[in-house]
Amino acid sequence: HVTRRAEYTPPDWQVPEIALDFALDAAATRVKATLHVQRGDLHQRPLRLDGASQTLLSVKVDGVAVNDWTLDGETLVLPLSGSAHVIETEVEIAPERNTQLMGLYASGGNLCTQCEAEGFRRITYFPDRPDVLSRYHVRMSADKARYPVLLANGDPIAAGELEGGRHWAEWRDPFPKPCYLFALVAGELAVNRGSFVTMSGREVELGIWVRAADIDRTHHALDALKTSMAWDERVYGREYDLDVFNIVAVDDFNFGAMENKGLNVFNSRYILADPDTATDYDYDAIAAVVAHEYFHNWSGNRVTCRDWFQLSLKEGFTVYRDQAFSADQGSAAVKRIEDVRGLRASQFPEDAGPLAHPIRPDEYQEISNFYTATIYNKGAEIIGMLATILGREKFRAGTDLYFDRFDGTAATCEDFVASLEDASGIDLTQFRRWYGQAGTPRVTASLHHTEGSGRAELVLAQRTPPTPGQEHKLPLVLPLRIKLFGAETAQTVAPEQTILLTDAEERIVFEGVTERPVLSINRGFSAPAILETDRTAADLAFLGAHDDDPFARYEALQQLMLDTLVAAAGNNRADTAAVVKAVAGTLADATLDPAFIAEAVLLPSESFIGDQMAVVDPEAIFRAREALRREIGRTLEADWRAAYDESQATGSGYVYSPEAKGLRRLKSVALGYIAASGASDAAALAFAQFEAADNMTDRQSALTTLVAGDSAERIAALDIFYNRYSDNALVLDKWFSVQAMAPRDDTGAMVAELLRHRAFTLTNPNRARALIGAFGVNQRAFNAVDGSGYRLLAEQLIALDRINPQTAAKLIAPLGRWQRYDAARGGMMRAELARIVKTPGLSKDMFEQASKSLDA
Ligand code: ARG
Ligand code: ZN
């Protein structure tokens, strides 16, 4: 069954008020729902309430038990005569048997909910669509010893004791909300409390709820929450609106976190951190996700989505907001590099593959499949381009107008764009194409200059390749930040300007060009495009040394490396010496931030190199990349050792600051190159770091280095790590991932063995992703020439689909890349996809992903 955007109709019935009464129990929970329903417009249609996986016990209309209802599939259909009624239903659900982790489920002995996108229908009968907004009154009762804490959305209003060791609590959320934002949590939880005074002087009580043993790992998340609240006031003028804001961390969660009104529920990996168990990367991710979910209170909750086709309205915008927040906390340049690297690793391939879709899709079979890098990260890039085009002040005026106009309503992407247009006076007609057109645009740029003419001409062209279902593409609006440097003096020849490329081809003339110009283009990655320029290796090396835009400088080095590696992987002449020289220059540049250096000297990933090739050859890519790593390691060995020692000398004790993070990052990159050089003491050096580490960043980077090699220390470190952290699920996930991502000949066999490890389970999504997900992105191991990697992934996906279809369907992407490989590999990948499609009892999540991947 396909749902289409064009077929949207407003809801037949509204539900302005709902009261829920939960008699909680892990095996059998009773849910009584009282819905105040109101007929919309002039129609005679019955009330239709979505439902799934629940047992209906009774139905009343206006206080009277009725039995003239029917079930249309799982939808409860009630004929009603008047325009307003009170509907009461009672159902039973079984949280502890809910392995899909959608609706009400059990995690670590506690009960919690996940409703977005369509989980609420697994809790009670309701019009499960985001344009039905209700005020919620929630009562919960439960065994007091097992579930001492009872939380729901909004503010707590009353609580009390019951007979038989049970107790109850009531919560009320004054803000009308769609049911996907409903949440409750019941369990044994400790709280780290804080408070925040809003800009209008209201005090908000903050609480981070975790199991008691984890309470010392919540301080970073609490700090991040306070920082986010202040940031959203300062940058967007958005103030928090309830008296309490609670976050609960759970171990079993299908994705990162959920912005339920006043009661965020998080995957524990995005809350829990201390130096011994979390890396700098984890600390950064925690702050980013805490901010993201908090920012949803306005971009998502106060203004929500009319239908799920508008998902990027809240997700793209909120990712844009959390990225800007993170950029403000440390190095904005490094943050931009990381975000673009992430976009290229997951979104570009998606846009080039069988599952390509616009940020506002036109149809879906299962909406869970559309929580994608495209909706989130390309969505964020598109908001970023709007911010660039409008400029800071007009963009802020536009978002103010948007929040003001649509507060308390369910809006569309068009509403957002129209608000920006109205507030700025800037015509965004053509820009809107970004919302409907899939695929990554390719921009070519060539700069022509005749010596002595004083003029330079830049020829720009754009083209977006076809994507499934979209043969013909139109030109997009691409804001390109451009600057020209003089090749001899390294001085500015033409100052930075933002060119709006709107046509298929355009020419821009620069006057007063007194020396040969070098083009710096798409500075800051101002448009999410794939760029092809006629810049030489010398030009790129020049920009890598002199560009004053840090992103552009990084990008020039990456392009130089990429060109070299693609040539080497294709057995063509490759000037590796130029790369070594550029790396040496970057490493030696004392004006640069160590965090930037660490990013800039890293070679592009195997998969990104593959994305540049007509036919991906994983073995050749791996060999070329390893050879270049060895050359960089060997030639600059003394420099790496110096960099390693210098970044080591940061004083004692773990500090989470941009400076300390940067040094740790450079240290781990240096260690990687020392190991790549083949130095005989490399394993000993890594093992010493592993043992001496007072933080997980250093320990994990040492382990990663050891696992890549064949030393005795490798086995020792893996054992020590496992034993030391055997009671910490999040750290064990790292233990699995490091091995699944290892650049080794035997990784496939190791992963097959780890699948049988006693600590491995498919029922925990983090664990499944740590092993199967990580293996799927290991280019060389997954693409083993005998097809064993493809078979392994398909078997696991089929098994996981029976337990948790949503999590399983997300992991299929690597098999969908079959068109990018040689015929033998492509054929084996297709065979596995076909096997998945034919599996009896396959979920609709998996069916949609597998069948689309196969058909393309
Ligand atoms: N809204 C959540 C967030 O991005 C994610 C919900 C994901 N839902 C899903 N069905 N995949 O913050
Ligand atoms: Zn979100």
TrEMBL record:
GO terms for molecular function: aminopeptidase activity. Its cofactor is Zn(2+). Coiled coil: none annotated. It catalyses: Release of an N-terminal amino acid, Xaa-|-Yaa- from a peptide, amide or arylamide. Xaa is preferably Ala, but may be most amino acids including Pro (slow action). When a terminal hydrophobic residue is followed by a prolyl residue, the two may be released as an intact Xaa-Pro dipeptide. Gene3D superfamilies: 2.60.40.1840, 3.30.2010.30, Neutral Protease Domain 2 (1.10.390.10), Peptidase M1, alanyl aminopeptidase, C-terminal domain (1.25.50.10), tricorn interacting facor f3 domain (2.60.40.1730). Residues 538-854 form the Peptidase M1 alanyl aminopeptidase C-terminal domain. Its EC number is 3.4.11.2. Residues 73-181 form the Aminopeptidase N-like N-terminal domain. SUPFAM superfamilies: Leukotriene A4 hydrolase N-terminal domain (SSF63737), Metalloproteases ('zincins'), catalytic domain (SSF55486). It comes from the Bacteria. Keywords: Aminopeptidase, Hydrolase, Metal-binding, Metalloprotease, Protease, Zinc. It holds the Pfam family DUF3458. Residues 221-434 form the Peptidase M1 membrane alanine aminopeptidase domain. Residues 439-533 form the Peptidase M1 alanyl aminopeptidase Ig-like fold domain. Belongs to the peptidase M1 family. This is Aminopeptidase N. It comes from Sphingomonas glacialis. The lineage of its organism: Bacteria, Pseudomonadati, Pseudomonadota, Alphaproteobacteria, Sphingomonadales. The gene is pepN.
